[in-house]
UniProtKB/TrEMBL annotation:
<feature type="binding site">
    <location>
        <position position="249"/>
    </location>
    <ligand>
        <name>substrate</name>
    </ligand>
</feature>
<feature type="binding site">
    <location>
        <position position="267"/>
    </location>
    <ligand>
        <name>substrate</name>
    </ligand>
</feature>
<keyword id="KW-0007">Acetylation</keyword>
<dbReference type="GO" id="GO:0004359">
    <property type="term" value="F:glutaminase activity"/>
</dbReference>
<protein>
    <recommendedName>
        <fullName>Glutaminase</fullName>
        <ecNumber>3.5.1.2</ecNumber>
    </recommendedName>
</protein>
<feature type="binding site">
    <location>
        <position position="198"/>
    </location>
    <ligand>
        <name>substrate</name>
    </ligand>
</feature>
<keyword id="KW-0378">Hydrolase</keyword>
<comment type="subunit">
    <text>Homotetramer.</text>
</comment>
<feature type="binding site">
    <location>
        <position position="73"/>
    </location>
    <ligand>
        <name>substrate</name>
    </ligand>
</feature>
<feature type="binding site">
    <location>
        <position position="174"/>
    </location>
    <ligand>
        <name>substrate</name>
    </ligand>
</feature>
<comment type="similarity">
    <text>Belongs to the glutaminase family.</text>
</comment>
<feature type="binding site">
    <location>
        <position position="167"/>
    </location>
    <ligand>
        <name>substrate</name>
    </ligand>
</feature>
<dbReference type="InterPro" id="IPR015868">
    <property type="entry name" value="Glutaminase"/>
</dbReference>
<dbReference type="InterPro" id="IPR012338">
    <property type="entry name" value="Beta-lactam/transpept-like"/>
</dbReference>
<feature type="binding site">
    <location>
        <position position="123"/>
    </location>
    <ligand>
        <name>substrate</name>
    </ligand>
</feature>
<dbReference type="Pfam" id="PF04960">
    <property type="entry name" value="Glutaminase"/>
</dbReference>
């Protein structure tokens, strides 16, 4: 049942979030936390939090919405924004903008496509973006952390050294992707230095409240919390479009069908989503489906757009 098909601007999201949390409690088969990074495997799959941040920074939340979790691939949205802001369209000579239809860590398309990854959100594409940001800034992960701290208003956000070390110890596949692209001349920095930046990037711990606030610049068409512009309106549209088509990997079609919003998942169990011109959301629950997306997270966003009528369609 639609609570409010076209919510007025004064809609408070709290009753919607409360209702979703109640429904999610009964979601069967909540999936399994990622186990290929041992530091993530220990999280309780029943944890659940959800936050909505309005354009003025008002945040609503439910459940474990203030509990920090591992942001992982959600950070790919922010490094993409930082790099696009600096180098503009030149980036697209090094990474594509098409859905891959393959798992996030897949190697298969790279050889046929000359070391140019399909999009910035699969691991290969994210490595290219981080490499380019590293070349331009000398500290890609530090730039990212500064952006997340500023947009969330939370100066305590930080890298999780245990998660970064755990991923370094199990990083053979990402190393293979980076070396393979380097063989095509599509990576500038030494691979070990790039992997260090990438694993630190993925290790940042943040809560649903932090990430909903941090993503709000995409709902504000590129304007940061302090009123300055990070992305042009057109670039903000581009990032949102790539989230919609590529943000949940080989499940992006199903996510668009069920949720109808630009979204980006991470194997820590978080998903951010954007309602352009309206609000940004983040949901977290560590149990993943076989494609690496949070089971309860997708279900909660599905309910959110159904109950509020808010979607890009
Ligand atoms: O590269 C990796 O394997 C992780 N650090 C990030 C993967 C991730 O979150 C993919 N998402 N669903």
């Amino acid at each position: 049942m639609v609570i409010m098909a076209v919510p007025p601007s004064s809609l408070t999201y709290q009753p919607v979030l409360k209702r979703i949390a109640e429904e999610i409690e009964h979601t069967p088969g909540r999936g399994r936390p990622a186990d290929y990074i041992p530091a993530l495997a220990a999280r309780d799959p029943r944890a659940f939090g959800m936050a909505v941040a309005e354009l003025d920074g008002t945040v609503y939340g439910v459940g474990d919405w203030r509990e920090p979790f591992s942001t992982q691939s959600i950070t790919k949205v922010f490094t993409l924004a930082l790099d696009l802001a600096r180098e503009g369209d030149e980036l697209w000579e090094h990474v594509g903008r098409e859905p891959s239809g393959n798992p996030f860590n897949s190697l298969v398309q790279l050889e046929h496509e000359n070391g140019i990854p399909r999009n910035p959100f699969i691991n290969a594409g994210a490595l290219v973006v981080t490499d380019r940001l590293q070349t331009r800034t000398g500290d890609a992960a530090g730039e990212l952390l500064a952006l997340l701290r500023a947009e969330s208003g939370n100066p305590d956000l930080d890298f999780d050294e245990e998660v970064a070390a755990s991923e370094t110890a199990h990083g053979d596949r990402n190393a293979a992707l980076a070396h393979f692209m380097a063989s095509y001349g599509n990576i500038d920095n030494p691979v070990p230095a790039l992997l260090d930046q990438y694993f630190r990037q993925c290790s940042i711990a943040a809560s649903c409240a932090d990430l909903a606030l941090a993503a709000t610049f995409l709902a504000r068409h590129g304007i940061r919390a302090d009123g300055t512009r990070l992305l042009s309106r057109s670039q903000a549209k581009q990032v949102n479009a790539i989230m919609l088509t590529c943000g949940t990997y080989d499940a992006a079609g199903d996510f668009a069908y069920r949720v109808g919003l630009p979204g980006k998942s991470g194997v820590g169990g978080g998903i951010i989503a954007v309602v352009p011109g309206r609000c940004a959301l983040c949901v977290w629950s560590p149990g993943l489906d076989e494609r690496g997306n949070s089971v309860a997270g997708v279900a909660a966003l599905d309910r959110f757009t159904t109950l509020t009528g808010l979607s890009v369609f």
